[in-house]
Amino acid sequence: MTQTILKVENLHKSYGKTEVIKGVSFEIKKSETKVIIGPSGTGKSTLLRCINQLDRIDKGQVWLEDVEITKSHIDINQIRASIGFVFQSFNLFTHLTALDNVRIGLMRVKGMKEEEATKIALEELKRVGLGDKIHNYQAQLSGGQQQRVSIARALAMSPKLILFDEPTSALDPELIGEVLEVMVNLAKEGTTMIVVTHEMGFARSVANDIIFMDDGIILEEGPPGEIFKNPKHKRTAKFFSKITQLEGEKAK
């Protein structure tokens, strides 16, 4: 039986009087890629932040393997070292090179010696196609290259899974492909990933499962062929119809 890496059960999150997540439950198994899609403002990014404990949940539980990480006594830093997070806006240290951005977590969080951390950082930068950019600062990198440094930084920590929060949304159209290519390769290698994205082509071709969220709940979940071709809910079908229309307009 394939190991369950993450389990989310009845998760709720509000900001003031606004309830953003309204009882979400799902799980992901080792080496799976689960893609979360849905309209903007429906709680997808908040869900990822709650999983990684960047935002505290109001109700519910999250388990990483067999450890409930939503308990109050849990070491948050240790948990975050086990769950990689790739943000929309890269979140790189502007005063550090690509190499330093990747190895800093290994030295400060994992306590590695510089030589060992450097070896791992170089391997991961090469893995995402940036072996020739290790001494470049953020200002010397394109948006796509910056996001690939962010991915290398997450990979370097050897996480149990990686969360991607719309990783291509801040990129120019011509740079999106280079980031998606890295993510496709990671999926093929068996990296466990949860991806919030509007890139429907990526979702169709890479995801083991699609989660469609609307208004803070999961409306439906299933394999891409089922969700895209035979959605059960009218809201899901309407969303895909609009996406298809927009993609057609872009292609003109």
Brief account:
With about 250 residues, the protein is α/β, with parallel strands linked by helices. It has a single domain (about 5-225), classed as 3-Layer(aba) Sandwich (Rossmann fold), CATH 3.40.50.
Name the features:
252 residues; alpha/beta; Rossmann fold; four-stranded antiparallel sheet; 40% helix; globular
Task: Write the topology of this structure.
Blueprint (H helix, E strand, L loop, with lengths): L3 E12 L2 E12 L3 E5 L6 H8 L7 E6 L2 E2 L7 H7 E4 L11 H11 L5 H14 L15 H14 L4 E5 L7 H17 L3 E4 L3 H7 L2 E6 L2 E6 L1 H6 L4 H18 L1
Parallel strand pairs: 3-8, 3-9, 6-7, 7-8
Antiparallel strand pairs: 1-2, 1-4, 4-5, 9-10
Helix pairs in contact: 3-4, 3-5, 4-5, 5-6
Explain how this protein is built.
The structure is a single chain. With about 250 residues, the chain is an alpha/beta fold. It has a single domain, classed as Rossmann fold (3-Layer(aba) Sandwich). About 40% of the residues lie in helices and about 25% in strands. The protein is built from nine helices and ten strands. The strands form two sheets. A six-stranded mixed sheet has the order 6-7-8-3-9-10, sandwiched between helices. A four-stranded antiparallel sheet has the order 2-1-4-5, covered by helices on one side. β1 and β2 form a beta hairpin. α3 crosses α4 and α4 crosses α5. About 40% of the residues are buried. The model has no long low-confidence stretch (mean pLDDT about 95).
Strand order of the largest sheet: 6-7-8-3-9-10
**Amount of beta strand:** 15-25%
Summed over residues and divided by their number, the pLDDT gives a mean of 93
Q: What is the CATH architecture assignment? A: 3-Layer(aba) Sandwich
Stretches where pLDDT is under 50 for at least 5 consecutive residues are none
Q: Can you identify the CATH superfamily?
A: P-loop containing nucleotide triphosphate hydrolases
CATH class: Alpha Beta
The outline comes out as: globular
Biggest sheet record: 6 strands, mixed
Number of helices: 9
Radius of gyration: 18 Å
Distance between the first and last residues' Cα = 47 Å
Helix content: 40-55%
* CATH fold node name: Rossmann fold
How are helices and strands ordered from N to C? EEEHEEHEHHHEHEHEEHH
Q: How many domains, in number, for the residues?
A: 1
